[in-house]
Amino acid sequence: MGKAVIIFSGGLDTTICVPLMREKGYEDISTVTVDVGQPATDVEQATERARIMGTDHHVLDVKDEFANEYCVPAIKANADYFGYPLSTAIARPLIGKRAAEKGVELGAEVFIHGCTGKGNDQFRIEHGLRMFAPEIPILAPVREMNLTRSWEIEYAEKVGAPIGQSKDKIWSIDENFWGRSIEGGRLEEPGYAPPEEIFEWTASFEDASDQPEEVEIEFSKGVPVKINGQSVTPRQSIEEANKIAGRNGVGRIDMMEDRMIGLKVRENYECPGAVLLITAHKALEALVSGHEERRFKALVDQQWAEMAYRGLWWDPFMEDLNAFIDSVNSRCTGKVRLRLFKSSLQVIGRDSDFALYSEADASFDDVESLPQSQMTGMVRVHGMASQLYKQQRG
Ligand code: ARG
């Protein structure tokens, strides 16, 4: 048996993959953790569990790549799948890609991931692996062996796999700096109100400050470059936006989501930074783009979200959509001011050298720039077809 490479988060599902693969006869096992900005303690826990189980362990830090190459396009595309800024979705292709490349380097004979058969991540991660290591077969024990969480816990205890407190953990959480997803337990019931304890990044209405906070975000070609006058990298902009929106209770999302396999499920997210940056970005686009562009961009953004949700990051259609999105964003340079207050977020000002707006033309007080009197003819022909139709029908 050759080398088995496990895409390893260090959670229950991927931890039990180690003894399971050993039972199948794989002696030579590497575990690969791709760091897209999940909590440092998760990355440390993965390393510790790998050490206990004696695998050849690798941590790949792709945080800046994730911010620059995945979150930035998401901002430009106003990433929105039924209200969800696609935080888990856009990280998965990158995890697949980097794990694939590492696997090839390590001489993997097989890849193993811990995704279940009901979610979207199996599609996204496997696609990333196949795109960049098409020859290497993939095993998904949780899916293929129909495993349940309670079976996994019992099995881990039997073989002495380090799963720590997994037993008491009710929520299944996925996290990177673009957002947190909280699933499982009673949250699966659409009628169950999310308990306060599931939220870690956003203040409750009660705890949020009693004073409104204003923030100014500056974009250059659709990319956030300054927050409150302070220069930021894309990653810093997201981290800072998470703090600002989070402390004001902005960015909680409770929604019904239609999964790729056709399942409708209830989902909870906290995406404070994504909500703040995308709200600001949309406001700037509205200032610098024309009417037809805005209408069409909304359609393009929606298609982009569908493709991103499915993890089809390298599809030619995605390239086409990004080409249009980048073209619109080439003029998306300027500043947006927003006010946050107890979970509300309002745009209160915008400014750009590329604004397709003329104060003189729009003003009721200016009679020189665009004289009202010239409009008479234009107004007269408005609705001609409707008039003719009415005449015909009598
Ligand atoms: N439903 C979301 C998506 O498909 C998030 C899934 C995250 N996984 C988790 N275990 N919380 O993008």
Provide a descriptive summary of the structure in words.
By secondary structure, the protein is an alpha/beta fold. The protein folds into two domains: 4-66 and 79-172, HUPs (Rossmann fold, 3-Layer(aba) Sandwich), CATH 3.40.50.620; 175-351, Argininosuccinate synthetase, chain A, domain 2. It contains 14 helices and 14 strands. The protein has helices at 12-23, 40-53, 63-76, 87-106, 121-132, 141-144, 149-159, 234-247, 272-288, 291-309, 316-329, 359-362, 376-381, 384-393; strands at 3-7, 29-35, 56-61, 108-112, 138-139, 172-176, 179-183, 213-220, 223-227, 230-231, 252-258, 264-270, 334-341, 344-351. The strands form three sheets. A five-stranded parallel beta sheet has the order 3-2-1-4-5, sandwiched between helices. It has a five-stranded antiparallel beta sheet with strand order 10-9-8-13-14. A four-stranded antiparallel beta sheet has the order 6-7-12-11. A hairpin with a 2-residue loop joins strand 6 and strand 7. The longest helix has 20 residues, at 87-106. It starts with a strand and ends with a helix. The model has no long low-confidence stretch (mean pLDDT 96). Bound molecules: arginine (ARG). The site of arginine (ARG) has 10 residues, from helix 4, strand 6 and strand 7.
